[in-house]
Design brief:
By secondary structure, the protein is of the alpha/beta class. The protein is 44% helix and 15% strand. The protein has helices spanning 3-6, 22-33, 45-59, 73-87, 110-138, 161-180, 199-202, 211-217, 230-237, and strands at 13-17, 37-42, 63-67, 92-95, 141-146, 186-193, 248-251. Strand 5 (141-146), helix 6 and strand 6 (186-193) form a beta-alpha-beta unit. Helix 2 (22-33) packs parallel to helix 3 (45-59).
Length: 258
């Protein structure tokens, strides 16, 4: 079998949090193209249903849409139960849901701080933990967490200390889980995207005015597109990455190189 064929995901069962739109939707589309069955998991159930239907119609795979707030352990566990009941097993978890708040540190309330940490870091832990339990029982699986280049650098000029701290936490969490589960055949990796054109950036009133500035700072002179994250995730999800665990993959157009 050739390498491209080996990279296919036919029959794999995958869930994607924050899968209704943006990076999650784009990566879910790539998983679907590669032959996997996909559960779209999101707080926005209307959008999740639309995305799940689109993937089913376009790629002839099985899909489901599940409303879940990743900060709620009961909802996360119920979501995993639904995926396993519907698909029969779980091969890949893409723990991707996240938000950003741009607030100066000295003005940030406890609630604002907590919301970002709860979704971006605790949400990834709860989702990866629930997925890991099933994968350990099954004898293996692959977990991909979305960190950010903000785990590696402090973005400027916007103030986003809670986001940066949450994403640095995602990378260290990823490495910790990779070590704990290495002997159980459960691989855990993260991706660290640079600025990517999605709702989170393009339609955020606080971030949108900064795009020109970011593009001036970017070695490639532009933001990334969600589809530019697809191939790394297909690789991490599949059976050609069996020696890859505990790694973080920067996909940032060299933004963090200087
Ligand atoms: P989007 O805002 O476009 O999509 C995020 C999705 O996650 C939305 O559908 C959102 O629903 C959902 N979501 C938010 N909170 C929760 C929750 N508590 N439980 C379940 N789902 C939730 O973001 P992106 O696609 O841009 O970002 C995806 C990931 O990539 C995030 O972790 C982000 O931090 C990370 N990232 C993004 C970068 C970028 O430049 N865009 C760069 C680096 C990392 P709703 O809209 O209803 O809130």
């Amino acid at each position: 079998m050739g390498i491209i064929e080996k990279m296919r995901l036919d029959g794999k069962k995958i869930f994607v949090t924050g899968g209704a739109r943006g990076i999650g939707k784009s990566v879910a589309t790539a998983f679907a193209e590669a032959g996997a069955d996909i559960a779209i998991v999101d707080v926005d159930i209307e959008e999740a249903r639309k995305t799940a239907q689109e993937l089913k119609d376009q790629h002839g795979i099985s899909t489901m849409a599940i409303q879940t707030d990743v900060t709620n352990p009961e909802q996360v566990n119920a979501m995993i139960d639904q995926v396993v009941a519907g698909f029969g097993r779980l091969d890949v978890a893409f723990c991707n849901a996240g938000i950003c708040m741009n607030i100066p540190a000295e003005e940030m309330t406890y609630e604002q701080w907590k919301k970002v940490i709860d979704i971006n870091l605790t949400g990834v832990f709860l989702t990866a933990q629930a997925a890991g339990k099933i994968m350990i029982q099954q004898g293996g699986g692959s977990i991909i967490n979305t960190a950010s280049m903000s785990a590696h650098i402090v973005n400027v000029p916007q103030p986003q200390c809670s986001y940066n701290a949450s994403k640095a936490g995602v990378i260290q969490l990823t490495k910790s889980l990779a070590i704990e589960w290495a002997g159980k055949n459960v691989r855990v990796n993260s991706i660290s995207p640079g600025y990517i054109g999605t709702e989170l950036t393009l339609n955020s009133p606080s971030l949108k005015p900064l795009i020109e500035k970011w593009n001036e700072m970017a070695p490639l002179g532009r933001m990334g597109r969600p589809e530019e994250l697809q191939s790394i995730c297909v690789y991490l999800a599949g059976d050609t990455s069996t020696f890859t665990t505990g790694s973080d993959f920067l996909v940032d157009g060299a933004f963090t190189c200087f």
